[in-house]
Design goal:
Helix content: 25-40%
Largest sheet: 7 strands, mixed
Number of strands: 7
Strand content: 15-25%
Shape: elongated
Distance between the termini: 38 Å
Order of helices and strands: HHEHEHEEHEHHEHHE
Number of helices: 9
CATH topology: Rossmann fold
CATH architecture: 3-Layer(aba) Sandwich
CATH class: Alpha Beta
Number of domains: 1
C-alpha cells in the first residue's frame, strides 16, 4: 500500500477545519449514523470511547444512546478536541493517538470510531490498542475509507498532470486481513459505496477543504495549482457529470468486532 499522510499533518489540517467541519459534514453524519445502527442492541457500556471524535457530533449521539454511561471523546487534532469540549457529550475530552491510546487496559466497553482510522498508517496497532483497552465482551465499531474513495477526482487529475492530488486509502482486503488477525471476533465487515453529487468542481473542492480532508499526501505538488490546470481539471471532471451533478464516491468499510467474553 502507498504511504498514508503524516499524522502530524493530518492533526494540523483537522484542527484548522474545526470551525467549518460541521457545515459540510453531511456524509460524515450519514455514515456515522449507519455505524450507530450496527451497534449490538444488547450492548450497555459502562464506559465508551469516541475515537477520532472530531467536533463531538457522535459523542453527543453516544451520550443520548447510553445516558448512564461515562464517555471519553478523543481526537489527534487538538483543535477538534477543544471544539468538542465546548459542545459537551462526554465526561472526558483528550487529545490522543489511536495507535497509542492513553487509556488503561480493560477500561472501555465500547470503542466507536467514525471516519477517523483511514489516517492511521498502522491499522494493526489500532486493532491491538482496541483489544487492549476493551473489557472482555467489549465492542470495537468503526468505519473507514477504502481505495476507490474520490476515484472520480483522482482519475480527473490523472488526465491533467499525472500527479497524486488525492489522499491515499487502504484496500478493503487489507482491512479484512488485519481484522481477521486482530484477536477480536469479526461480527460485521462490509464495504458500502456512498455517492454525493455537486453542482460544480469548486463546490466539491471547497467541501474537502472545509472538512480538513484535502490532499495531505507526502510528495504532493508544491505551490498553488495554476488556473490552467484547474480549468483542465474541471473539463476532465465534466466528462463524468451525471443528471444529479458531478459524482463523488466514497467507499466506506464498516466493522463491528468483539473481544471474546470471559468463559
Amino acid at each position: 500500500m502507498s504511504a498514508l499522510p503524516d499524522k502530524r499533518r493530518v492533526a494540523a489540517s483537522f484542527s484548522r477545519a474545526a470551525d467549518t467541519y460541521d457545515s459540510v459534514a453531511q456524509l460524515q453524519r450519514d455514515v456515522g449514523r449507519q455505524l450507530l445502527g450496527y451497534l449490538p442492541p444488547v450492548l450497555q457500556p459502562q464506559r465508551w470511547l469516541d475515537l477520532g471524535c472530531g467536533t463531538g457530533f457522535f459523542s453527543r449521539g453516544l451520550r443520548d444512546r447510553y445516558p448512564r454511561s461515562q464517555g471519553i471523546a478523543m481526537d489527534i487534532a487538538e483543535g477538534m478536541v477543544q471544539h468538542a469540549r465546548h459542545a459537551g457529550g462526554a465526561q472526558t475530552f483528550v487529545a490522543g493517538d489511536a495507535e497509542q491510546l492513553p487509556l488503561r487496559d480493560g477500561s472501555c466497553d465500547l470503542v466507536f470510531s467514525s471516519l477517523a482510522l483511514q489516517w492511521c498508517a498502522d491499522f494493526a496497532a489500532v486493532l491491538g490498542e482496541a483489544h487492549r483497552v476493551l473489557r472482555p465482551g467489549g465492542v470495537l465499531a468503526f468505519n473507514s475509507l477504502c481505495v476507490g474513495t474520490l476515484q472520480e477526482l483522482r482519475d480527473s487529475w490523472q488526465a491533467v498532470d499525472g500527479f497524486v492530488h488525492v489522499n491515499r486509502f487502504r484496500r478493503a482486503e487489507d482491512y479484512q486481513l488485519l481484522c481477521a488477525g486482530s484477536g477480536l471476533r469479526v461480527e460485521r465487515l462490509q464495504v458500502c459505496a456512498h455517492r454525493l453529487h455537486y453542482p460544480d468542481l469548486r463546490s466539491l473542492t471547497h467541501g474537502l477543504k472545509a472538512l480538513g480532508a484535502h490532499n495531505l499526501n507526502d510528495g504532493r505538488p508544491a505551490g498553488l495549482t495554476g488556473r490552467a490546470r484547474l480549468r483542465a481539471l474541471a473539463d476532465a471532471y465534466e466528462q463524468r457529470r451525471q443528471p444529479e451533478g458531478l459524482p463523488c464516491t466514497y467507499q466506506v468499510i464498516y466493522g463491528v468486532l468483539q473481544k471474546e467474553p470471559r468463559p
